[in-house]
Amino acid sequence: MSALDALAQWPADNVAAAIITPSGVVDDFGDTGRVFELASVTKLLVAEAVLVAVEEGATELDDAAGPPGATVAHLLAHASGLAFDGRDVAAPPATQRIYSSAGFEVLAETIEAVTEIPFADYLRQAVAEPLQMASSELAGPAGHGARSTVADLSLFAGELLSPTLVSTATLETATSVHFPGLDGFVPGYGKHRPNDWGLGFEIRSDKHPHWTGTRNSPRTYGHFGQSGTFCWVDPELQAACVVLTDRPFGAWAKPLWSEFNDSVVAQISGRIQS
Fold this sequence. Notes:
Helices cover 31% and strands 17% of the residues. It is an alpha+beta fold. The mean pLDDT is 97. A hairpin with a 3-residue loop joins strand 9 and strand 10.
């Protein structure tokens, strides 16, 4: 029996999912070619494109960007001080973890300025095309406007498990905590002290409650979206999971997501042990 079988009982019209290891997709569910709105899972793709720009030398993590005193790294790590829902400055850089989709719009504009390439095109050229993610596009704001499929995001998750677009060192840096000790909110899950975050990738650490499972390692990183979507990678488990739905995130998701992710971890752990 697969952990993915439980998805048939979820209260969404359409659900698709996959479990990924370095060898590829090991289990899937639903129409993995169906295009879904990613909402904030978009930020994972945008962060990867920014990391490619850093490795290409187009920008640096410590280059000024956003509010006075903020940098590319501050924007990626939600530590720039930009407000939750706009470009007003709510705090000095590196003093609070203020989740900001607007910060990712600023990032996109920053990369456009230094590369002279529209950011949606840059993301396609830097991430989607090399990974053969043919059904993925940034159709709206850089904080939440991408569309993709489970098939495409499985390729992306495989890239995170075995990086080729950026160096292993760059990815390890991006998926480690930046500006440690900052408190802040995870939308839908309340305030965490601290609210650990990497460069675009949320770090699970010891957060509770959380959208990943209780059995995911503290090093697990990823993102969820308000469109009812999530993607996580657990470096200790050497596995990833992608789930896309067409039901907006809400109270229905909290118990189901955690229970489901616990069963996914148990399934992968069982395969490793056998």
